[in-house]
Amino acid sequence: MKILILGHRGMLGSDLMLRMMAAHDVTGKDVGDFDITVEDDCGCVIAECSPDVVINAAAYTNVDGCETDRERCFAVNAVGVKNIALACRGKGIRIVHFSTDYIFDGRKETPYVEEDEPAPLNVYGASKLEGERFLQAFSDRWLLIRTAWLYGKNGKNFVKTILEKAAAVKTLDVVDDQIGAPTYSWDLAAAVQLLVEGGHEGLFHLTNRGRCSWHEFACKIMQYAGKNDVTVRPIPSADLARPAVRPAWSVLSSRKFSEATGKTMRFWQIALQDYLERTGCRK
Ligand SMILES: NC(=O)c1ccc[n+]([C@@H]2O[C@H](COP(=O)([O-])OP(=O)(O)OC[C@H]3O[C@@H](n4cnc5c(N)ncnc54)[C@H](OP(=O)(O)O)[C@@H]3O)[C@@H](O)[C@H]2O)c1
């Protein structure tokens, strides 16, 4: 397949590049090559490459930053998706796009399924939901994957932040009233490849298996990295007073993915151990 990956230098985009390159003819584009908010730029990169599949991993992912930079956030996460959809429409090009657990309000007590009603609590979630709606309205062939709590080799993420902090201080305060599923971008990239190669379309939830709070996640990072001298204290979200409100519960059910592919995602603890091993942080 001829595949164009947009945002190929980002956390997920870079893992998708590595995975897909082994089996397909892959081109990557990112900031500097094009601007997803400019309709003509999107038309040009897609016409130039003439792909079978466009994978859009480009996004504005600074959740707190979105609260103050609403315009840019919607331009990248919503209008950008419309630009891609319009450039692919009528040409038989399949679009693969990503959304987030933050489109939900967290009031549910069981894992969110694809049919659940979105109700975002913050600007980032609202912009991603608008992107989903543009994709469905303006694209004729789409695969939409909602994922959550990503970490990976490239880019800023929770695992790196916790390891950096633990190198500087001996006590960390981490929130214990938000529950989700940490997801290794390398695992997500493999699952995306499976869906793309299987010709799947429609909406899928996709994360590593299991669930935890950010506090439990931080404790496991410390345990697997051998940082036994660091204390991780649980705190409520209210103590952090971050600009964007996060859902208290944003566990996604990957059941539809398993039924479609016959595969299950591995548990987040196993994926985390693997990530720390690969990045030389496992003790
Ligand atoms: N990270 C998470 O925890 C998480 C959770 C759920 C869903 N997701 C979704 O998963 C997808 C991938 O996320 P990620 O964390 O891998 O993102 P990321 O690391 O922030 O990568 C996004 C890429 O898009 C580029 N980009 C930003 N604005 C652009 C523009 N105007 N034109 C072209 N490219 C632009 C970025 O460049 P710069 O770095 O130069 O800005 C970056 O290379 C996104 O759709 C995100 O919403 C992420």
Number of helical regions? 10
Spatial gap, N to C terminus: 40 Å
- DSSP strand count: 12
Order of SSEs, N→C? Answer: EHEHEHHEHEEHEEEHEEHEHH
Percent in helix = 40-55%
Distinct bound molecules? NADP nicotinamide-adenine-dinucleotide phosphate
Uncertain segments are none
Task: Walk me through this protein's architecture.
41% of the residues lie in helices and 17% in strands. With 283 residues, it is an alpha/beta fold. The protein has a domain at 2-151 and 182-208 and 252-265: NAD(P)-binding Rossmann-like Domain (Rossmann fold, 3-Layer(aba) Sandwich). The longest helix is centred in the first third of the chain and has 19 residues, at 70-88. It is globular, with a radius of gyration of 18 Å.
